[in-house]
Amino acid sequence: MVQFGVDILLQQSPSWKKAAIGLVTNHAATTHALQPSRQALLEAGFNIRVLFSPEHGLDVSGADGQAMQDGRDPLTGLPVISLYGPKLAPSEEDLAGIDILLFDIPDIGARFYTYLWTLSHIIEASAHFQKPLVILDRPNPVSGNMYLAEGPMLAPDNASFIGRWPVPVRHSCTLGELALYFNATRKLSAFIEVVACKGWDRNSFQPDWGIPFVPTSPAIQDFQSMLLYPGLCMLEATNISEGRGTHHAFRVAGAPWINGPVLANGLKEMSEEGLSVQATEFIPSEGKYASKRCYGVKMEITAPGHFQTVWSGLLLIKLIQSLYPKEFAWAPYPTHVNPSGKGHLDKLTGLRNSENLFTLPLPAFLAAITKHTRVDDWKAATAAYLLY
């Protein structure tokens, strides 16, 4: 069975155990036995003084892009400072009584999942305020296989809170590895220690760990949603529902004007092996088409060891646009960190003028997305920082 960084730390008694600790975490961060990390650490005698929480809040229930406020944790009684509200990084005042920062948040392996970028601000704060940072590492749930990494790479002028620094959409790294990579390559000069997990094979996926799935945010409720997310998240920039407000977010795509069987047949013909597609209908309780019946497709990846999620998500949008040119539209996606919601597709893909890709004829489009999703040099770039 896999052991997370927090499990390894709980077996140790580090010199800083009684120092004043600021823990960056949420309720999805648990031990391998599913006890919340913050509770397990307190019971083991770690001197946690304050909690910092990312997007979706400490309880992992806040809606996507919704600002979260400070509060108090009902489980531990500790104060909670939100890092997805008035500020994205801890202030000097927040860290005044803190000796060391501890980070334990599960990631899902996609660049635009914001927990990585909360970590980036923590690294900068660690360096600026000279507070050591200990990262309790966790496996990448969609595998650490570098051959499954997919671009596009982020163009620096498309930087935002869903992608601050250049990294592929699907990065195949752990957060501990990315922290070491960024600290070195961006010369951040933070003092970082990574407590590595044990028993993880880079080629394994979350269901292989022998640990039940724990939802990481309101829309990521199962492994298939997590696996499809790097591609289907692109639907946020369109008027197609990605299934938010259903039990199948990022596993379905639909709208009131789509013919499900037609789209399903088109996607089956164009997709690579390893994707199961069926026509479906659903009624979202929130987001696009809330309370309206949508028709479309439901997807399941049957061969995760070689399936290209990002490539397939881009293809899905192209097929819908081709089938429904009058109904399909690009759409803004307002959030706390991008109130206007403009330029969302560029921020997701990392490409400049990415909507122009979809004006290409199908053969040229396929060639272009094949080129953009290939990241052959990413493995070499990160090799010195990989821990497993």
TrEMBL record:
GO terms for molecular function: peptidoglycan beta-N-acetylmuramidase activity. Pfam families: NamZ_C, NamZ_N. Residues 21-223 form the Peptidoglycan beta-N-acetylmuramidase NamZ N-terminal domain. Residues 227-388 form the Peptidoglycan beta-N-acetylmuramidase NamZ C-terminal domain. This is Uncharacterized conserved protein YbbC, DUF1343 family. It comes from Hydrobacter penzbergensis.
